[in-house]
UniProtKB/TrEMBL annotation:
Its main location: plastid. Residues 356-477 form the DXP reductoisomerase C-terminal domain. Residues 241-324 form the 1-deoxy-D-xylulose 5-phosphate reductoisomerase C-terminal domain. Keywords: Chloroplast, Isoprene biosynthesis, Manganese, Membrane, Metal-binding, NADP, Oxidoreductase, Plastid, Transit peptide, Transmembrane, Transmembrane helix. It comes from the Eukaryota. Pathway: Isoprenoid biosynthesis; isopentenyl diphosphate biosynthesis via DXP pathway; isopentenyl diphosphate from 1-deoxy-D-xylulose 5-phosphate: step 1/6. GO terms for biological process: isopentenyl diphosphate biosynthetic process, methylerythritol 4-phosphate pathway involved in terpenoid biosynthetic process. One of its GO terms (cellular component) is chloroplast. This is 1-deoxy-D-xylulose-5-phosphate reductoisomerase. Signal peptide: none annotated. Its EC number is 1.1.1.267.
Length: 493
């Protein structure tokens, strides 16, 4: 399928051609010259979907046995039931909105601070929590003058105080885990950005929810591991969970104002990662360096491997389920190599809405801070999307032999409860082992499957926070101990 974009004068039609499928419709839409105008545009297109049903004919493998036994009745309420509307009476912030950032020296944190620095009339920083980068944290304190600061590594407290010796308005400093919690629930903060990785992000996020803060969500464990615990809590405290990653933000942007029950399908786009053009047979020879080459986004090692295996997308399917309440049968993955469409939704009347933009993490972060408002962005720092320069956008169905992660993720999602956290933690450990050259590329899938299989007997449907953290640790330990080549699973041989 290709979406061909011609130069402005030639634009008459926007077409989806599917050369490989004979039974698909050819949809032509009048396209009225509105392209090349906005940084992001929400186009309404009739997508001609591969009728082969790539999302439905999944082999039942791995963690599937618990399907339906544990789910339905226990499924937690989604963050957004397929629609996003502002309740009447909800306070719209005037003047700079006070923000806390947990994980301020990481990639999400630094991009958040760039946005705040660019929009001092819209946002201000009240509290920052960092891991161990004292130099950067000290710079951030000097620039943003937060009231409260936390450094996770307590041994660095002295060094931080030294670095702030000549700062006039010194912030309060609370080290360690308690500090992160206090930053997350700082009384002045309205929104908390959770840019910290791993289950370490759970406690501060829970503290922020209990204190009634909106969550700009960049920590995937919050929903993937913590969903069954976090979502009911967010509902109880009437807290909004605003997705800060590009795919879920795209879906979130597309469901704005959608009437109840109007969402039919979620379509997550995936770049296809480093091996999208590799034949399946060659995957057994993959080297670490091959997996670390990503075509579109420049990311950390772990995430780059996750996009090669497509585990990142599998985990996003689970997150989409928790965020938007879509059933797993109604969430699909489509490979879109250009990464310009960040995801789509289909409404009941078969209309498809997409959100487009350059691959840039700042836009979804900005929207979590500004929602429901839209902030003007200068084209000097925010290049505007030029569809004509792009020429064409292409799509293809993901191959579930090449990406066994999809079946594993859907199966874990359907099992629900602690299974999704186990899947994610096992994958993290497996990727670490692969990067350290302890296991092969294909072993990543086997390690994850074997760990999920092992967990089936112990699955907890409505886990406590302690149980979530316990099984996260258990999955990492177990994944490190399995011998993938000794325990070949029939589905993956
Ligand atoms: C701290 O952050 C800066 C800026 O991102 C980076 O250049 C530096 O390497 C980091 N230092 C440590 C110790 O991670």
């Amino acid at each position: 399928m290709a979406l061909n974009l011609l130069s402005p004068t030639e634009i008459k039609t926007l077409s989806f051609l599917d050369s490989s499928k004979s039974n698909s419709n050819l949809n032509l839409l009048k396209f009225q010259g509105i392209c090349c105008i906005y940084i992001y545009i929400c186009v309404c297109v009739c997508v001609c979907v591969c009728t082969s049903g790539f999302a439905f004919k999944r082999k039942e493998i791995g963690c599937t046995a618990s399907k339906r036994v544990h789910c339905s009745a226990q499924t937690p309420p989604p963050a957004w039931p397929g629609r996003a509307v502002i309740e009447p009476g909800r306070k719209i912030w005037d003047g700079p909105k006070p923000i806390s950032v947990v994980g301020s020296t990481g990639s999400i944190g630094t991009q958040t601070l760039d946005i705040v620095a660019e929009n001092p009339d819209k946002f201000r920083i009240v509290a920052l929590a960092a891991g161990s980068n004292i130099t950067l944290l000290a710079d951030q304190i000097k620039t943003f003058k937060p009231k409260l600061v936390s450094i996770r590594d307590e041994s660095l407290l002295g060094e931080l105080k030294e670095a702030l010796a000549d700062v006039e308005d010194k912030p309060e400093i609370i080290p360690g885990e308690q500090g992160m919690v206090e930053v997350a629930r700082h009384p002045d903060a309205v929104t908390v950005v959770t840019g910290i990785v791993g289950c370490a992000g759970l406690k501060p996020t829970v503290a922020a929810i209990e204190a009634g803060k909106d969550i700009a969500l960049a920590n995937k464990e919050t929903l993937i591991a913590g969903g069954p615990f976090v979502l009911p809590l967010a509902h109880k405290h009437n807290v909004k969970i605003l997705p800060a990653d590009s795919e879920h933000s795209a879906i979130f942007q597309c469901i704005q104002g959608l009437p109840e029950g109007a969402l039919r399908r979620v379509i997550l786009t995936a770049s296809g990662g480093s091996f999208r053009d590799w034949p399946v047979e060659k995957l057994k020879d993959v080297k670490v360096a091959d997996a670390l080459k990503h075509p579109n986004w420049n990311m950390g090692k772990k995430i780059t491997v996750d996009s090669a295996t497509l585990f990142n997308k599998g985990l996003e399917v689970i997150e989409a389920h928790y965020l938007f309440g879509a059933e797993y049968d109604d969430i699909e993955i489509v490979i879109h190599p250009q990464s310009i469409i960040h995801s789509m939704i289909e409404t009941q009347d078969s209309s498809v809405l997409a959100q487009l933009g350059w691959p840039d993490m700042r836009l979804p972060i900005l929207y979590t801070l500004s929602w429901p408002d839209r902030v003007y962005c200068s084209e000097i720092t925010w290049p505007r999307l030029d569809l004509c320069k792009l020429g064409s956008l292409t799509f293809k169905a993901p191959d579930n032999v090449k990406y066994p992660s999809m079946d594993l993720a859907y199966a874990a999602g359907r099992a629900g409860g602690t299974m999704t956290g186990v899947l994610s933690a096992a994958n993290e450990k497996a990727v670490e082992l692969f990067i350290d050259e302890k296991i092969s590329y294909l072993d990543i899938f086997k390690v994850v499957e074997l760990t999920c299989n092992k967990h089936r007997a112990e699955l907890v449907t409505s886990p406590s926070l302690e149980e979530i953290i316990h099984y996260d640790l258990w999955a990492r330990d177990y994944a490190a101990s399995v011998q993938p080549s000794a325990g070949l699973s029939p589905a993956l041989v």
